[in-house]
Amino acid sequence: MATNAASVQTASIGDYVGWLARRWWLVTLAVAVGAVGGLGFAATQPKVYVSETKVLVLQVGQDTSVKVNLDTESQVVRSTTVGDAAAHLLNITEPVDTLVERVSVTVPANTSVLSIAFEAPTVAEAQRGSQAFAQAYLDQRAADAQKNLDVQAAAMRDEISGLTKQLNDVAGQVAALPNNSVDRQRAVQQQQILTQQINTLNNRLIPLLATIVKPGSILSAATKPEGPAKPDLMLYLISGVGIGLLLGLAGALVLDRLDSRIYHSRQIPYRTDVPILMEVPRGRDRSAVADAASALGREFSLLRNVLRVAAGVARGGRPSATDALLICGAAPGPAVEFVVSNLAAAFARSGERVVIVCTDSTSSLPQLLGVAPMQGLGDVIAGEVALDSALYAVPAIRGVSLLSPGRIDPRVELPVAAVSDLLVQLQAQADRVLLATAPPSSAVDAQALSEIAAAVLLVVETRVARAEDVEASIEQVARVQGPLAGMLVVRSPRAARRSRKRKAQALPVAAQPVVPAQVELPRAGRESDQTMVIPRLDGDGERIEFWNPGADKSDKKAVGKRAPVDDNTTADLR
């Protein structure tokens, strides 16, 4: 059993995920469209091929103890100087800045290798560009190294020339001074020093002049791309899926907020005066009647007791066995038929004789109860048959009889006074009368009959009823001060499946409650069938005649004509 307390509970994680489960199709569609859009956008992008050349960088010069800074060298590869040289090798007139932007350099970890990659719209152009930049870099590095050696050698030659000139001057002094003079000895010492310096510089110059510049080498020639590196189909696909997922989630959330259908009891408009009496699942087999020992059967037994008390409270006294209970749905759906059949079984289990009166001409309640009536309420009101002849025993539920809608004209309203007189007759021979009517949103029968009912039960079926349907139904009953006992929430089959998984308990597919023997209500058949519409009174007090297949030709001429009706006819209908 449940009350309106469920209506004011805070939403659980399942409630937040529920809208996603309900709108999965929209999210899936958005993801699919995003994936197709991403691949389509990728197809419009120009293809770019990348070729890579690996260059081994060596130390140039005589000092091999200093390691090459590869980060600096990678910037040299992308310099305008190397770009000019590469453009000259490629024999193109493309601006250097644009050409350099197509080059990328990476340094593999713990190596002295530069990976020079070049982007181009064709495979051949990518290979030539990568090879050209690698060769231009090596040539530029060799030229810089050779220039550095030349500068060092020139400096040494200049220094040797200066020292040689000084040595010649000192040699002249030595020759001019006496052998035993102090100045001559000093000149000789200076001569020796200068000679030693010149020899040292010559020893350094000779290896410098013999140095061969080796800036590096190409380890692997420009690779041939197996396919375009851009556009990256996987990247565009993932991006499209991500964008589609976000848009799908946003759209599903917005659509769910705009959807007023009720998916669980928390979405039912909260009313302190209209409690939620119970929330039950409805399986796929709508004709199944829950057994008394099942969980659903016990719930309907509890609901039976509550409605019995509610009927007595509405009368201002204790429960009465002859109080009529009106059951209607907030919106058209099979839930009312499910509830009526199970409530009838619950009342029958308690030893009561039950009569179900169905006023909805579109209801499939007779078929669900296994009854094929030939007469019904419309025939009784029209005076075509007696009330006892229109009652049919329900074979699957002992002690329950059905008064089907019969030939009720859905275009006109049901005469409440006539139905009230029939209820008096039924309550004289039955212990409980259940009125099954169309939803208040479809017909006015529910509002009109709620005036004469002892209690009204509003059935709210999830995934079918909307919040405005519930509000409108409650408002219509309240306007005539109908005794609305509360609401019964019936979960749709999908919700019922989840409930069965959680409880690990399935509802029975067939049940025949065992109750004490009751006096069966009379059942009668008809020898022939006919197509007719119950006579009704229009606004001018005239009777509307309809075709009767058993009438003669003279009666057929009166089809569609109107004839005045006296007060006795009105009294007969009532």
Describe the structure.
The structure is a single chain. The model is unreliable at 1-9 and 495-574 (pLDDT under 50). The chain has helices at 13-22, 24-44, 70-77, 80-90, 96-101, 123-176, 182-210, 233-258, 295-315, 335-349, 365-368, 377-381, 387-390, 416-429, 445-449, 467-479, 493-503, 553-556, 567-573; strands at 49-57, 103-106, 113-120, 216-220, 276-281, 324-329, 354-358, 392-393, 400-403, 432-436, 455-461, 484-491, 542-544, 562-564. It is rod-shaped. Helix content is 47%, strand content 13%. α2 (24-44) packs antiparallel against α8 and α6 packs antiparallel against α7. It is an alpha/beta fold and 574 residues long. It has 19 helices and 14 strands. The two termini are 40 Å apart. Strands 5-12-11-6-10-7-9-8 form an eight-stranded mixed β-sheet, with helices on both faces. Strands 2-3-1-4 form a four-stranded antiparallel β-sheet. Strands 13-14 form a two-stranded antiparallel sheet. Residues 544-574 are annotated as: Disordered. InterPro entries: Bact_polysacc_biosynth/exp, LPS_length_determ_N, P-loop_NTPase. One of its GO terms (cellular component) is plasma membrane.
